User: What shape does this take?
Amino acid sequence: MPHGVPRRPALVPALGFCSGVVLGSVGETLAAVAPIGLLAATVFSNRWRAAFAVSALSLGIAVGVAERMESVERTRSLPRDGSPVERTIEGRLLGSPEARLDGDASVLVSVALGNSPDSAPARVLLRIRGGAHAESLGGLHHGDRIHVFAKLRRPATPGMGRLEDAPPGTGLAGIDVVGSVKSPRLVRLVQEGPFDIPRLADRIRVHALHRLDLRYGSGGPIRALAGAMLVGDRGSLDESEWRALRASGLVHLVSISGFHVMLVLAFTLVPLDRIGIGPWSTALLAICLIGLFALVVGPQASVLRATFGGMLWLFGRAIGRDGDPLNSLAVLAVALLLVDPSIWADIGFQLSFLATAALCTLSRQVRPSIPGPVWLSGALAASLSAYAATAPVIALQFRQVTPLGILANLVGIPLSAVFLASGYVSIGVPGLERIAAWICATSGTLIFDTARQFESLELHSRVGRPAPWLVAASFLALSLLAFRSERPVRGLPVSAIAFALLVLLHVGPRPPAVSGTTELRLLDVGQGQALWIRGPDGGSIVVDAGGSSRPGGFDPGDRRVVPALVDAGITRLDALVISHDDADHAAGAFAIVRSVEVAELWLGPGSGRSARLSALAALARRRSVAIVGVAAGIARTRAGLKFQVLAPRRNARGTDNDRSLVIRIGDGRSWALVPGDLGPVGERRLLDQLAELRADLLVVSHHGSRTGSCRALLRAVNPRLAWISAGRGNPFGHPHSETLSRLRASGARVQRTDREGDLEFVFGRSDAEPGELFSFGSAKLDRAQHH
Assistant: This one.
């Protein structure tokens, strides 16, 4: 080994083990990226290290497969298709109920769902509706046994929940079952838990949140930011705050990580060292304190990484040895995956370890090439390295890149240091609460101001899902660059290659070629509706955009519709059509207008009386989008297709549903009918107009509700295919069994997003057989889009 090269015996086996866990857990596209760390490491390895790596890879595969099989076993009693079942369960709380911004509460429960008393307990995430401030939930703590009547279902993938089941900014790795409870009154305390360390930590957390409410008020952005950054309660930040933090590259500030542990150690070691109780006693007390801190803020991946890293450092300090940071990081990764193999899917685990590894290695290579004072070049090198290492994962998971975050962090990180130090003092140091709270509130306001200023520059961009080879090549090039001083790679312009790959990552996929066919895709947006049409000339139109009426809730427009568009290389829409005011059709449109160039926004009669649609129109005008009012009788050609507006008339009355835009889309040979949320009154009115309604495809109105899609309408439309957009386990019972019976009796083939994911319909193919004008099928969302 060359002089000065640090010994890292754990690095190669750890990379092999981690890659194996991923390979054992999934068998899809993401698995192709997993071994890249191993490949990068073996470039610098001898035969023995390669042998260790292969052995570790095999062990990791076995662990990943075993975890996946155990997760399936824990949920064997639930339907495989993800449909919900109502059950009475009794389980042990893994933490106190946490309030969500939308008024609900979330709680994690350990429940044995199997019939055997020896069944392994499943981790069930329960969403208690209307329970954020219910007194019946206020006294529940870790370890309590509760009896509850809930609607349970499997998540889309074993061991991982869907993002809409969790508050914004939180992950669901390790969740076996998700469920909903109609009311806090259905939750009954059976037995209080024993007093132990986790219960004590849970009580400290609840007390800290109460202190934050007293100091900063129960609502508002500063209280939400303090809850997230100080205690790990991220459910109070609303969607606009998350959006600003993501767009500016500052979203990592709300993740509790190494900086928090450093503060706790600083507050601990300084007085203990002054007392002089000895290195081992000091290390033991500090380890106990940061362990308690981890229990209080919650076992997030970044918290566990920082906590165990701090413990290793304290142990090395006690014995007078300094370990290599990267070697320690490798040991930590293996330890966490052995305890919970599903944690690899947590975005916090991926970003935390990648960023830390980049700071340990890549920043040293980048720093000499950055001019300026040492403090500035060091900060820029650290920010640039962390960004380069995490950009492929962020593009993969969030379809967004924020290169301006490299500069934003120069401001955001010092502000976060002030915010954290003053925030902890404001809730834990008597006599200094007021001045510390003022400093904390001021620095928090500056953090949000910085995020919004960088967001307004709009230098962040949406990118399509990067190809596996691009992600793999990016990590390989960065690995070669990080280690080139230790193992020179001659003849390869590593820096240029790494830079070129990152540029490709930011450019995204090429725009789609003109195919001459018409493709329709009903996107799986949960309990809502969003239809994307790509015409024969390559243009695209979106009809409705999904959405949520709950403040701070999951935004399907941002997390489903926009990613689907950018994945296909769509950066411009010929038109965005909103059928009516309901949030599940219109609320997601804001994200589309902000993220994609939109030529026209189509709105129906009376849209000016809707606060939501008026706000959407105002945003559209600021983005230079043409506002087009449409009503019955209007026909337009967009994206090479004919769009006929069949209803409502300009003077139509009735409910919002009955005044939904009804649009017929086709190429003259094949047609699709999209009636929004049209109800019985609107359907009768439509039939009385004697309009041409025949269509090969019917997007069933109002998510398949009982009163929609009457027999007379189905006879007039005579569809061969009927699509229903509904959320999995939705509380409305959509689609209704009577509606499904009517659809099947009409001869239509029924497809549903709650069972099949995205749905596709294609007509106008040049290779179609005579008389075959369309084809249809199901396009399952890939794992990254679901999670």
